[in-house]
From TrEMBL:
Coiled-coil residue windows: none
InterPro entries for the chain: NA-bd_OB-fold (IPR012340), RFA1B/D_OB_1st (IPR003871)
Transmembrane domains' residue ranges: none
Pfam families recorded: DUF223
Boundaries of every Replication protein A 70 kDa DNA-binding subunit B/D first OB fold domain copy: 27-130
Record protein name field: Replication protein A 70 kDa DNA-binding subunit B/D first OB fold domain-containing protein
SUPFAM superfamilies per UniProt: Nucleic acid-binding proteins
Amino acid sequence: MNNKNKVYTKKVSSKNSQEKYTAKVVYTPLKDLRFKQTQNKTIKVKVLKVWISESKKTGEMWSLEAHVIDEEGTQMQLKVNKDNIDMFLGKIEDGCVYAIQRVTLQVPTGGYRTVAYHYFMWLNKYTKIQRLEVDASTFPTKIFTFLPLELVPGRKNDNQFYTNVIGRLHSISNIVIKKVEEHDGTKDVNMREIYITNDDGGETMKITLWGDLATTIDDGILDSNENAAVIIIVTGTFVKERMGKKCI
């Protein structure tokens, strides 16, 4: 057994008698999982974020997905295909810790990835998942890798990974209402543009915020902090080109 694996114990009742015994549960770190060798492995992870991936045109659910992390800080993207969503919907929640057994690993072949890890983790009809009542603070906080603003243009239409940026808020527009076509008709959606710069002010990047995100920044935030820099972190974005300029 890998000496870095962690061993925990729990009481298990025998089916044939009232006798109780202690069974050892060995949790395998995510970094030690190997392709096609996960059948008898149990992992212990904290869910950082869970979401449904769906078609904007039809509303069809494609997959249930989550961003998870283990106690050593290894992060992985978890997926459930549309045929098995009902088995796990509502059973995986943000901020909770789970023991998961019988997962499948897959080498990513396309589409976006929330973390730069060499495997996806799939839950299937044979997967066993149990919520653990443990102290979630033993897990590291979410870890981001920020792309320098001067390198953002090179990520245009590169959807392999999300782009995360950090910078000083330079300016902010008013919220405007845009009409957006969705599967159930046309909707009015909030839209706001902000501009951030790097430390020396040499690079400026436009970021467009849609929906509820547009209201997360107060209109007067720059006026109320005129003597201090306002630092903005934006994660999970794609880089596009608008009117000949790269933006997020």
